[in-house]
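notes to self, project folder thing:

trying the whole complex as one job this time. last attempt i did each chain seperately and stitching them together was a nightmare. two parts in total, labels are on each line so i dont mix them up again. if this works i'll redo the older ones the same way
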Amino acid sequence: MKVFTILLLIFFCGSSNVWSSSKYEKLEERIRVLEKRKTDSKPNISSTATGLSNRFNPALSVNGLFLGTYNDEGNYDSSKEVRTGVKIQELEIRMAAYVDTFLRADITLAFEGTSNFEVEEAIAEALLSKNLSFRAGKFLTPFGKHNQLHTHAYPFIDLPVVSEEILGEEGLNEIGVGASYFLPTNWFSEITFQVLEGANTNQFNGPAGSDFAYLIRQNNLWDLNEETTMELGASYVTGKNSLSPPSSFDNKTQLLGADLTFKWKPTGREAYKTWIWQTEFIGSFREQTQEGWYTSLQHQFAKTWWVQGRYSGYTIPNGINKEDKNQWSALLAWVPSEFSAVRLQYNHLNQATADENQVLLQLNFTLGSHPAHKY
Amino acid sequence: MKTYKLNIIFFVYFVSLTSVPFSWAGLNIITTTQDLASIAEELGGSLVKVNSLIKGNQDPHYIQPKPSYMVKMNRADLLIYQGLELEIGWLPVLIEGSRNPEIRLGQRGHLDASENISRLEVTVGDVNRSMGDIHPFGNPHYNLDPENGFIIAKSIFDKLVELDPENKLKYESNLSQFNQKLKAKINQWEKQMEPFRGTKIITYHKVWIYFAQKFGLVIPSTIEVKPGVPPTTKHLAYLTGLMKREKIKMIIQSNYYESKFAHMIADKTGATVQTLPAFVGGVPEAQDYFSLFDKINEVFIHNLKSGS
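result (full assembly):
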């Protein structure tokens, strides 16, 4: 400091004709500011003494889904999922962080309505070696494409009727462990194997605690050109069920899934246009067969606008529970940013009981630091 | 005779064993943008193989994390990205999904090119998303100040030497060649742009602040109301007024933005709209880091001359 002042003085004296006194004052002022800044930036480290710190808190985010519904049928039936009214469709609270150099954890807690609480996902994940990753916890299993999505990331407001009927409202969401391997091919190819609790009441829930379900999925993605990708996947799950009374037979359920997705985004206009065409087939084979499919088309036609359509069919082809229904959906979404959307959806449900016409209006928002979504 | 044959077989076997893993001895580098690829290529020369994930005419904010990118990253020895949250919407998913332990954060095969950049527009104090799509750690378009080319090159050079110390001398000579060429080019660009110091322009997004700072251009406002937010009619009216008052004759925007708003204002103010590449590869002529600025400056000089 002293040296600096002396240097300044020398400067000042040596060239007093050039250096006016106001310039000197300005320099002094700057020195004062810089010195002040130095003392201001003195860190305040108290965690050594308190043991409390916010530094390593997980990234926290909340997804809020508010839903208004109109249904022209069955509004007095309180067991119905879709009734005229307003509700909190879901609040998802997500926490994600690295646990240590080895593990990463990702937890999603969900409130449906205002009091129904559920641990939607609690995942610990590690990369065991090159290409091989491992996960344990409770998670939305990779049975097809749609089943892996959190409610806020659904392409439509609700599930396609086939998923809802076969896997249930919560989907195939299980506690388990699994490994996923990146195959050394020239295109993206991955194989996943998981051992699951098998608790899904629609399909599994075998009589013994040890009745696990086993999942295998293989999926591939190719770049058809710079702007278009094609993804093809197949999934299979097998496990015991307790849906008919225990017998000498193994009450075995086998689930089969196949999915095909095309995505297109124009190079250089990524923010403005998209086409997505996704089709999935799901079948459940046990003492009765349930099967169905959906196909959906999503089109982004301007920076903040999407228009979408979906057809989903579902059937129990034979037996006493024989059923056949299908659902047509159309959706218009206004998406001002990646953190919020207002979506309006119309459903027409053809079924054995009275057909239903539903109108759904959803406000969807993301608060905080939310991990980027997968492709 | 027999032992002779056996020897040959052993020799061939031995050679094939040792040669297979070294069939590509060089470093396999993946970058996000083509600018980084261009500089990495200059430094690595024949010792490296460089591929960029995205093209210079793509909007880096809106890239989808395609699993096909993961395949490229899976086989990479080094990942270089622009940083400052430019790639936040897709790179984390790719790093995680590529299942390549070498390129993860904190590993030797991981390089954030913004590390040593002196950043502009770093937010001080609290930020929130009502401010639009802001990058709190600073504006990520630092590649558009050619002076930053030296800094990016130095960061990449250090990384190459760290990963491949045997070829240090080669990298050193490549670096000094790159620096000399860039120095000469910057002199040329500075001279070309000198007459336009202080000229005011309007841009679509805050892509050009580093460029403007380097060449002394002034950007009083942007067409976007806030980063990532398209303009309202009120804002367009304000801009029209501003441009008439300040006699602003030029609107520039990166070529991945829609230009309808710019043309609406241009029609009312008589200004010209120029779409410019913001990255190497943005237009075919901008094939490397040097020709990117050649192209940008050519457009500027042409327009500012005819405008005045």
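what i see at first glance: Residues 12-18 of chain A have pLDDT under 50 and may be disordered.
need to look closer tmrw
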